[in-house]
Amino acid sequence: MNHTTGAMIGAIPAVRFEAVTKRYGQVVAVDHVGFDIAPGTLVTLLGPSGCGKTTTLRLIAGLEQASDGRILIDGTDVTALSAAERDVSMVFQSYALFPHMDVMENVSYGLRAMGLKKAEAEARAAEKLSLVGLSGYEKRQPSELSGGQQQRVAVARAIVLEPKVLLFDEPLSNLDAKLRRRVRDEIRGLQQDLALTVVYVTHDQEEALAVSDRIIVMRSARVAQDGTPRELYNAPASRFVADFMGDANLLEATVGPHQGETAGVRVGPLTLELPHRGISPGPATLAVRPHAVRLAAAPAGKGGIEGQVTKAAYLGDHMEYTVNTASPKAELFATDADVNRAHEPGADVAVRLDPESVVLVAND
């Protein structure tokens, strides 16, 4: 199956995978993966550890060679080419800056290695340092920089080569939470300003949602789903994607007879009229986002599920609750913006589900 990423009409894909497989002995790390990435877009490979996302990135870079299939960059078959023969640059998780070189030397190194004269290489490097907000840092040593500044030096060193594809391998994992948000916004802004084609690897769903034009979710060496952040969050194709793309309560449900595009979906005492999404009548899963779980003081009455709050946490601008229900038997995670009328642990509550924020998914 070929997953198309971005608006490809009339455009040569910046990256194309055609049934690519990578084996290490008996272990299949990437299994018959296919996708296209449009020029000028940021596409994230997302998934849990061991799913194949980093191997896929290394296959694009030429740091690994495909066992089967073809890899094309800008329409050229690069499957058999080495990393040095591909027009790509990679920003590593560790930044991989040369500790004995200052910032200018680090950023201009690739250009000097290509044979450019020192003055021209440094002029180009200075331009890219300005783009990432590091003008004036040229003579600093990497050890004198913060983690965020080192990350920006690594980005400048990569983009100074003006590659067809820029690759990021878990670029924010070494930064604290506040700095992660700032640097990811800087990377996204730079990508959009320069119309860079970026392939970005992370296991952090929030990070992927924030920076991506499209997300390729991987599971067990294969593509589980490929789509925009909104598509993956609001219309996951499976229980796995629903659960992986942010918090989701997965409830056992029963799909009734189809009536056009919708069907009655029974979950505990509730029946919701929902898009059936091609799922046959019978057992299925209802994916319920935490903000779709609405709590009110008991009794539940008609159209509600009886529950009891077991945990309540105040997070400043919202509450987080864990609620146990008997029918369906479940432990629900709920969020509520109303921090002034909180439900205490042990309180009996009526649970209702917002039909606009739940989605039916097939059982994996």
What does this structure look like?
By secondary structure, the chain is α+β, with helices and mostly antiparallel strands. Helices cover 23% and strands 36% of the residues. The strands form four sheets. Strands 7-8-9-4-10-11 form a six-stranded mixed beta sheet, with helices on both faces. Helix 3 (118-131) crosses helix 4. The chain starts with a strand and ends with a strand. The model is unreliable at 1-9 (pLDDT under 50).
Mean pLDDT, to the nearest integer, reads: 91
Give the helices and strands as they follow along the chain: EEEEHEEEHHHEHEHEEHHEEEEEEEEEE
Beta strand count: 21
**Secondary structure category:** alpha+beta
Shape: globular
Can you summarize the main beta sheet?
Answer: 6 strands, mixed
Separation of the first and last Cα atoms: 18 Å
User: Which spans of ≥5 residues are poorly predicted at pLDDT below 50?
Assistant: 1-9
How many helices does DSSP assign? 8
Beta fraction of the residues? 35-45%
Helix content: 10-25%
User: Any idea what the radius of gyration is?
Assistant: 24 Å
Read across the widest sheet, the strand sequence of neighbours is: 7-8-9-4-10-11
How are the SSEs ordered, and which strands pair?
Elements: E1 3-5, E2 15-24, E3 27-37, E4 42-46, H1 53-61, E5 68-73, E6 76-77, E7 88-91, H2 103-113, H3 118-131, H4 147-159, E8 165-169, H5 177-194, E9 198-202, H6 205-211, E10 214-219, E11 222-227, H7 229-234, H8 239-244, E12 249-259, E13 262-267, E14 270-275, E15 282-288, E16 293-297, E17 305-314, E18 319-325, E19 330-336, E20 348-353, E21 358-361
Helix pairs in contact: 2-3, 2-4, 3-4, 4-5
